[in-house]
Design brief:
Elements lengths: L1 H15 L1 H22 L4 E9 L11 H18 L2 H11 L5 H6 L1 E4 L6 E8 L2 H23 L4 E5 L14 H26 L6 H8 L12 H21 L1
Antiparallel strand pairs: 1-3, 1-4, 2-3
Length: 246
């Protein structure tokens, strides 16, 4: 019985504060959409691919051990690409007004398990700049790794290119609006229950019974002004009719 009453009170609270919940939810959706479209800077991504493959002579067999060695080198190469020794040359050759740390934050890697192909991606507000940075980073790395690791096993298999109509990878307005909707709805519902919890006014006889734990013996009904005027007007009309007849 108590659970059904609690559920009923819950629904009544939501219904009572529905306008507030809708208002907060709509406001959150509008704000998240406005920020996504007009405030946040679009970021574009461009990627290039490199193949880590140990160079073989005609006499050397291309065996499983060689492949495993190349796979183990990939993690090392990922750290070398983002190291100052590579990025400083990139900044110098492209005359960039960036620190090595800022440039490193733009670079990311992706490689499938047991794959010797590594995808190097660069994000930038300018799609052309993103492609230029991606290509230059792998070019410098390919040159430097020969002296750093004393190996020549890196080949560029796909250069970064800019499409006709590049699309930003972030922000994602639809996702942000969906998040804003959920957050706004949760905030509205939470605020509705908070206001209901802080509202300690007595509104009906049920509140009296619940708070004072006493039975209600009687209640004074609320009478509108129009209802009070109706009998007075009727009595006046009857008096006037009596005087007219007399």
């Amino acid at each position: 019985m108590e659970e059904s009453i609690s559920l009923k009170e819950l629904m009544q609270t939501l219904k009572k504060r529905m306008s507030l919940i809708i208002l907060i939810t709509v406001a959150a959706v509008i704000i998240s959409g406005a920020v996504s479209f007009f405030v946040m800077t679009p970021i574009y991504q461009s990627s290039t691919q490199i193949l880590v493959n140990q160079s073989q002579s005609d006499e050397m067999a291309y065996n499983t051990n060689t492949i495993q060695t190349n796979l183990q080198l990939i993690n090392t190469y990922k750290e070398i690409i983002k190291s100052p020794v590579i990025l400083e040359d990139v900044i110098k050759e492209l005359d960039l007004d960036l620190s090595t740390g800022a440039l490193a934050s733009k670079i990311s890697f992706r490689s499938a398990n047991d794959s010797q192909i590594v995808t190097v991606s660069v994000q930038d507000p300018n799609p052309n700049q993103a492609a230029t940075l991606a290509n230059k980073v792998v070019e410098v790395f390919q040159t430097k790794v020969v002296t750093l690791m004393n190996v020549d096993n890196v080949n560029i298999i796909a250069k970064a290119e800019v499409g006709e109509n590049p699309s930003p990878v972030k922000p994602q307005p639809v996702l942000n609006i969906a998040i804003g909707f959920v957050v706004g709805l949760m905030l509205g519902v939470g605020l509705a229950f908070l206001l209901e919890y802080l509202d300690n006014t007595i509104k009906n006889e049920q509140d009296v019974e619940r708070l004072l734990e006493l039975p209600v013996l009687g209640a004074i009904a609320q009478i509108e002004d129009q209802e009070l005027e109706r009998p007075v007007r009727s009595e006046r009309n009857a008096r006037l009719r009596g005087e007219t007849i007399g």
